[in-house]
Amino acid sequence: MNYREFSPKQKTVLSWWMPGNPDHSKEAIVCDGAVRSGKTLAMGLSFFLWAMMCFDGRRFGVCGKTISSLRRNVLSEILPKMEGLGASWKEKRTENLVTVTFKGHRNQFYIFGGRDEGSASLIQGITFAGVLLDEVALMPRSFVEQACARCSVAGSRLWFNCNPAGPSHWFYRSWILEAEQRNCLRLHFTMEDNPSLTEAIRQRYQRLYTGVFHRRFILGEWAQAEGRVYDFFEPEMVRPVPPGEFEKWYISCDYGTVNPTSMGLWGLQKGVWYRVKEFYFNSRQEMRQMTDEEYAAALARLAGKRTITAVVADPSAASFIETLRRKGWTVKKAENDVLSGIRLTSDCLKAGKIVICDGCTDLLREMDEYVWDLSGGAGDRVKKENDHAMDDMRYFVATVLGRAPAGFAAVSVERRK
User: Fold this and answer.
1) Is the entire prediction scored with pTM above 0.85?
2) Dist. CA 338–CA 385, nearest whole Å
3) How far apart are alpha carbons 215 and 210 in whole angstroms?
4) Which of 30, 221, 255, 322 could make an SS bond with 314 (beta carbons 3.0 to 4.6 A apart)?
């Protein structure tokens, strides 16, 4: 491949940190977009050049989904090119450490894999002058935020590179949509930004993918993958909380200790149930767990001064149910047939029997991320991911509306493969 020429967007990546550049004041950079668009090369080379030109005797983080993928996709490409520019480097594989010497400066680059939530502990305690996170959308939020928190040296910067995921992905919402507020330079890449690709190769990639994967891998869009459980649900179905009095109130709850806890406040008005408010707590993200007493207090705040007919609770949450009953709440153990509950919830959403209000941000996020398990032999089964608000909604529908008088028919949910 010919790297003697760079596209205008790659040149921006290579030079944004240099004094006098219009983007020099930015504290972070995000390069996202299509596969084979040249962003990884430009990012990796620029990161090492910036570190070696601007610092001496400092430590840096280089992070990927796994250490082996990082060595294959980044280090094996970038370090030989740095060597071609006059740098020397030495790697201690047992310590996952690369030491680079260039133009009289010597810095250390520590390699980390952000495979799962437990990976965040590996990066604690070290101080960085900068960090490069390759394929950041594949890493858990706790790991990414821990890596960013390590960059406390004056002049430190954050470097992010990834292909798109779904539109509700935390990184898209927190960094790409809020790039300006975070003083971050965001550059969106397409295959046209990679001058090493011939037109024939570009056309071949165009033919490889269809549908949502064409949008993600070729157009570089943050598009939801196939297999959404509630694939008919669109943002236009979300409504503001209606004015006026409500006839009845329920709270639904999916309980977790390590997993998130989700609660929804439902109000009945003119034959329609509105989810008007929610509580959502993710102990992994918050880096602490709440007790049953704390969750009961959160439920009381969610209820406010409203008279709650009953709390529809996760049937497995025995200790939490007992805590609520001791505090005087009427608690119903939820109906928990997953497929039947999904069918009923789907029909209620389509018929307008339940309406999600625009303050329920975590439920709306999960609506995009709640998908069928399309792996071979899985059958009719949903992935046990991003399903906590989905479960509390299903509990409410199956337990309250599912016991409604006859005349309501549930039909199967259409699955798209």
Assistant:
1) no
2) 14
3) 8
4) 255
